[in-house]
Amino acid sequence: MKQLILLFLIAGFSLQAQTVRKYSNEFLNIGVDARAFGMSNAMVATTGDVNSGYWNPAGLTRLEDKQLSLMHASYFANIANYDYAAFAMPLDDNSAVAFSLIRFGVDDILNTTQLIDDQGQINYDRISLFSTADYAGTFSYARNLPLDGFSFGVNAKVVRRIIGDFANSWGFGLDAGFQFEGDNNWQYGLLVRDITTTFNAWSIDEDEFAEIQGAVEGQNQDLPETTEITIPKMQLGVAKLFTFNYDYTLQTELDLNFRFAETNDFLSTPNLSMTPALGLEFGYLNMIFVRTGLGNVQNTRKLDGTESTSVQPNLGVGFKYKGIAVDYALTDIGDSSATLYSNVFSVTLDWEIFR
């Protein structure tokens, strides 16, 4: 195991000399689980179920039984489909594992590169269809540390990206997370995604590329880069659970999301940027939940050249009974002023339902 981790570290540092991108494999930053969406993805400290494999693998140690999670969402007026499935189970009192699969895809895209024939005539029979899809498979392992209240977890992920017959890639990376349960219902979490950097090695069909290489004069003259590097990101969270009259609860969490690059985030420097996220969950009898959150705080530039700060609000509800949890969120994956809000549904099944 130590040799495997060392191999990933060496590979990650050697890739630093290659071109890196601020935004790479962005479909892996959307999130999973309608509960998390309703709380603006502020989950790194409180997550403790099957979805911890995504939000913070250290949270898997809180599992008491096997769990299954399924989610579906449609974005951009149902043009893009986002699907997620995960399974997790405890190995013993101190460790757990999880497996998850994510697909973000756009199907039946019109390929009009051959619309005009050799005689310069438009021929609609030359239109074909293709799909583009991004896949990620993740194996997660978590274990309690000897220090009371501490747990850690790691993700090993494989990324597969396909753009019709034009190009495809394979990618590999690691995430690492920690959680700490303090006194008086305080919780803390830390997650570093792509801790070794995640790389995608692209294979481009040069014959397909040659057919469209001169489609726009002065553009697309050279083959694109074949290696894509995803730089690390860090999420730091603190949470507290309040209980009122035994039946009512309020789960709160504040997360700080860091990128090691200059972006449009709320706070940004040449080497580091940060945007906060706040999530609230009101619960009754641990059965009915109402959620809200604020996140994705960005500095935006208007058409008139002035700058402003945008905030993305999210809402959600949930119902849990005898091991079955059904959640819904009204959310937005991008700039709240530019994209439509989307409906997200998820279901989590706990094996306790069979007992």
What does this entry show, briefly?
The chain has 355 residues and is mainly β. It has helices at residues 2-14, 34-38, 52-55, 206-212, and strands at residues 20-21, 67-75, 80-90, 95-111, 128-144, 150-163, 167-181, 186-193, 198-204, 227-230, 233-244, 248-259, 267-268, 273-284, 288-301, 307-321, 324-331, 342-350.
Characterise this structure.
By secondary structure, this protein is mainly beta. It is built from 4 helices and 18 strands. It has helices at residues 2-14, 34-38, 52-55, 206-212, and strands at 20-21, 67-75, 80-90, 95-111, 128-144, 150-163, 167-181, 186-193, 198-204, 227-230, 233-244, 248-259, 267-268, 273-284, 288-301, 307-321, 324-331, 342-350. It has a 14-stranded antiparallel barrel with strand order 2-3-4-5-6-7-8-11-12-14-15-16-17-18. The longest helix has 13 residues, at 2-14. It is globular, with a radius of gyration of 22 Å. Mean pLDDT is 84; it is low at 1-17 and 333-339.
